[in-house]
Amino acid sequence: MLDIRWLEDLIALAETGSFTRAADRRNVTQSGFSRRIQSLERWARAPLVDRAGIPLRLTDAGYEVLGVAQSVVGEVTHLRDRLTSHAASGRSTIRIAAPHLMSVNFFQGWFPQVEAVLGHLPLVVTSLNVLPCFAALDRGEVDVVICLADQAGHLFQRLPQALRPDPAVRALLAHDVLIPFTACDEEQRPRYRLGIGRVPVLDYPEDCSLNWSLDLARVHWPDVDLCRAGATHYSDGLRLMARRGLGVAWLPRSITTADRAERHLVRAGGPEFDVPLVVQAIRRQARLSADAEAFWQDLVAGRLGGPEAPPAGQITTDRRESVDPGLVRLRSGR
User: Fold this and answer.
1) Please, is 153 exposed, middle or buried when counting C-beta atoms within 10 Å of its C-beta (0-12, 13-18, 19+)?
2) Which of 2, 38, 143, 193 has the fewest other C-beta atoms within 10 Å?
3) Where is the HTH lysR-type domain (predicted)?
């Protein structure tokens, strides 16, 4: 049986790059920590850690498990906290479905904002891929879907006709942007540069909505030579892979603040390679509970905008962000 502590151990190991430091963080002996990682590997039936390198890094299978681990641990922790705080409130539960990524790059900043405006609300989030999110909304299993979408709304066009939401039931919460990031080389310059030779890409699978947004953008970069070096549904897994120098990953800017500040990640190309995104909430068309209806009206009125959301119509592509002068600007093809 899978032990959630093993998932927490893997997260600590990925973040520290060391069995010793990870064991200290988890408050166990190094030998005990190592045995728990081995137990997780036996459960996965695959090696999850490449122990030969210094600092060590995860295997491809390890990054796959890491993405799930981050989502599961985050959701379980959040669920426990919400159930504890709302058990005696007597209010109707507001049911939200969202892709796994939102737990990493949005909810952790947004929930405190919601609480500051509305007080304690019984919000319960279910993490699913985008298509199951909208299927659950259609079946009435959730009240609201919150997801990242490209600004033009092409994501919704990729949904089956019956699941495509009417613009009248959508509310803008925040802006984000996918930026191509890479690790630095020994001279603190971008390890890979878009437009200079063949560039390995750490990608999203075909059924991932962020891949749909990237597909739309890639048609404007016909002269850029890209080769897939790996793929996972989880942006945070791609983030750690990019930090290890394994390739270029298009990551939401919102999850890379610390990495950019410490130059663990830098741009692999100029702003012409950015993909603007919006965080949108989509409700059921049928009547919701009184609490959920009131919650939705607050969303529509803009009282619950996302963390650091700029005014409507602006994009969080930070033009003040350092762009290496050596990065080649290519024709956009537009």
Assistant:
1) middle
2) 2
3) 2-59
